[in-house]
Structure formats: structure tokens, C-alpha cells
Amino acid sequence: MGRSVAVSTTSSPDTQDNESKGGSNAVIAVLAVIVALAVSALVVALLYYLYIRHKVKKKRQKNEKPFKQSVTRPQPQYTSFDTQGAQVFTYKQLQVATNNFDEANLIGHGGFGSVFRGELGDGRIAAIKQLDQSSKQGDFEFRVEVDMLSKLHSEYLVGLIGYCADQDHRLLVYDYMLNGSLQSHLYSTGTSGSPPLLDWETRLQVALDSARGLEYLHELVSPPIIHRDFKSSNILLDENFNAKVSDFGLAKLGSDKICGLVSTRVLGTHGYVAPEYAMTGHLTTKSDVYSYGVVLLELLTGRVPVDMKRPSGQGVLVSWALPRLTDRKKLAEMVDPVLEGQYAMKELIQVAAIAAMCVQPEADYRPLMTDVVQSLIPLVKHQRGGSKVMSTSDLQQEVISMKNSSSLDG
Ligand SMILES: Nc1ncnc2c1ncn2[C@@H]1O[C@H](COP(=O)(O)OP(=O)(O)OP(=O)(O)O)[C@@H](O)[C@H]1O
Ligand SMILES: [Mg+2]
């Protein structure tokens, strides 16, 4: 028995070899299964990754589509009314309105092009400004900017009815202002057939209205709009001689460069430009305050901002006027002779003080337009009825929502 036990517990070398071979085969088989599982897991993961990537790509393309379309393919040319308020005109419609831009309807020329009187399809009379074709403004940018400007509503701004961006044509359609520009009245000969000269009271009224126009752009619009080209030819008078500011924000739309040089158009108009803006190009709302001061000097003196034909030392209105504004005796001498006997000395001194502050060479010393408005209010006897200016929150909401919908920052 002991032997048989001995036999059963021992094995020959052959048997040992067979057993170890069987063990390593099993290990190999297990390893093979693990590798196969790992590879198939990897393949499944890879396929899943490719599937997800494909899905994300598709979703992104779907989201990008409307934005790309709006940039490269603007609204159809023949929409007659934009839902946001700016009326979009075809070139044909404006040709009809102006009798094919007939010379007889030409009101005048400016730095951007010509202005025509026209009758729109609904019977409204409008001033149609045909911008020079040299403007390199892109179609989309032009539309966004003009659409923005047409959202500004104040009784102290000339209303922008709409625009035309039909092919290469760029036109702006404004409310028609029957009495034309302040400039045409200030430098009129006063003879019959020429624009009537303005009396003292009307000049104060114009000063207040136009200050309110700038105040609106600076304080009630977010972000503020700097006019950049505030001057007496951009203050227009309606049938009742109410003044409104025109061409606000327009300098931004002009061509920036002529033969690679920054054009003087963008820098505003000679005689009205604040010194720091002319020298450094640094533009703030205080640059408009300076230009406003120059207009106030024009109203007071009836002199143009720059006239080198005048005697030495009198060519530049600001340099000539500034030392006189605070000298009581010299002040009375510099007033436009046609105003003689119409003003109280106290009023004159107050207006002169406001003008002197506005044309300070140092921008920080100039007042805000709100301060100017508050200083002028007590001087104006017949003020316009209730303000129709939109509230800040209304306007901000409109401007912001418009920006969001256009995806541009203006
Ligand atoms: N809405 C309007 N209603 C009536 N007349 C207008 C209107 N807009 C402009 N005008 C007149 O058309 C003429 C040309 O205006 P325009 O704005 O093109 O030139 P500007 O004011 O002299 O210079 P800028 O191009 O710098 O504004 C001016 O005499 C102006 O009085
Ligand atoms: Mg103008």
C-alpha cells in the first residue's frame, strides 16, 4: 500500500513536461483573450469618438449658418420697410423721389456728397443725401451703422428716415428741414430772397436746442456717440426755426483714407476741431464741446470760424475772441452788429462765459453738455413744449438689443 502511495505521488520527467506545456498554453490563451478584448474595446471607443465628433461638427455647422449668411449675404435689396424702424429704399425709389436727381432738386453739396429734395412714395418730403461712391464702407457695416443711427430719436436731432445700399449706391434719407442750415442764416446778406438773419432770442433758442442735441448723443445714448463734425452747417432749422443737429455719427461712415493718408474729413472741419484731437487724434465727447463753443461764438459774433482775409490776429475766431470774452467793454464790441439793442448785458456776459469755457484749450476744463444746457435754460424765454426725448433705459435697451441681433459692436 505504501508503495502504491509512493507511485501515485511521484511522476516521470515526461509527465512533468506535458503539464508545464499545458499551463503555458492556458496563460497564452488568457492573454490572447485579454488582448482581443482590449483591442475591441479600443475599436469601440474610437468608433464612438468618431461618431461624437461627427455629431458635434454637424451641430456647430448648423449654429454657424445664420451668422455667416448675415455677414456675406445682406438682406434682400428690395425690402421696403425694415421691422426695426429704418426704412430701406431701392435706388430706383430714390430716383423717382428726386426726379432722377434733377439739378432743380439739388439743395447743396457737403463733404460726403450732394443733398437733394425729394418726395417719397408716401408723400413725405425728404432730404436725400447721395454719398460719394469713393466711400469704401462695406455694405454690411454701412447697414449696421445707419440702422443704429436711425434708432436715435430726439426732437433735437434731424430724423433719419432710412437709407439705400443698393449695389454701389449709398444714400441717406432725412426729414426735410424747411429753413436749411444755421450757417445760411448767420452769413446771409439779409436782403430779400436770401435767408432771414436771426434775432438774439432765436439765437439763444438755437444755442439751447443744439446743446440738447449733443447732450442727447453724449449722455442718453450708450455707448455715447461723438458727433465729430459739429458745426453751423450741421444745425438745421425747421419751419418754426426749431434747431436740430444733423449728420451725427456720420464721420464714422466716411472713407478713412485717401491715398493712404487720413483724410481731413474724418478730422472734422477746419476751425471747429478741438486742439487735442487735431494734434493727437484723441477723440472724446469734449471734442464736440469745443466745436459747440465755436458755434456759440458764431452766434454771438456773426463771424466765420476761420477767415484769413480778416486783419492780422482776427483770422481764427477762437484766438481772437477768447481774450475778449471776459472783458466787459471788448465783449460788447465783438457782438454781431445786427443784434444791437436786442440783448441785455447780463445775458451777453452769461453766454460769453459759457462759450469761453467750451473753447478752453485743455479738454478737462470744458463743461459737459448737460452743464451747458442747464446754464442756457434760464436765458431762453420761449422754450419748446414737453420733451419727447426717449428715456435712457428705453434707448439703451433698444441699442443693446439691436447690437445683439447684429453681432457687431458698431
Ligand atoms: N435734412 C435736411 N433738410 C434740409 N436741408 C438739408 C438737410 N440736410 C442737409 N441739408 C442742406 O444741404 C446742404 C449740404 O449738406 P451737407 O450735410 O451735405 O453738407 P455740410 O453740412 O455743408 O457739410 P458736411 O458734409 O460736413 O455735413 C446744406 O446746405 C444743408 O443745409
Ligand atoms: Mg451736413
From TrEMBL:
One GO cellular component, as annotated: plasma membrane
Protein name: non-specific serine/threonine protein kinase
Reaction it catalyzes: L-seryl-[protein] + ATP = O-phospho-L-seryl-[protein] + ADP + H(+); L-threonyl-[protein] + ATP = O-phospho-L-threonyl-[protein] + ADP + H(+)
Domain Protein kinase, chain residue ranges per copy: 101-380
The keyword DNA-binding is assigned to this record: no
Superkingdom of the organism of origin: Eukaryota
Compositional bias annotation for Polar residues: 1-15
Annotated binding of ATP, by residue: K129
Annotated region described as Disordered, given as residue ranges: 1-22
Membrane topology summary: Single-pass membrane protein
Keywords noted in UniProt: ATP-binding, Cell membrane, Kinase, Membrane, Nucleotide-binding, Serine/threonine-protein kinase, Transferase, Transmembrane, Transmembrane helix
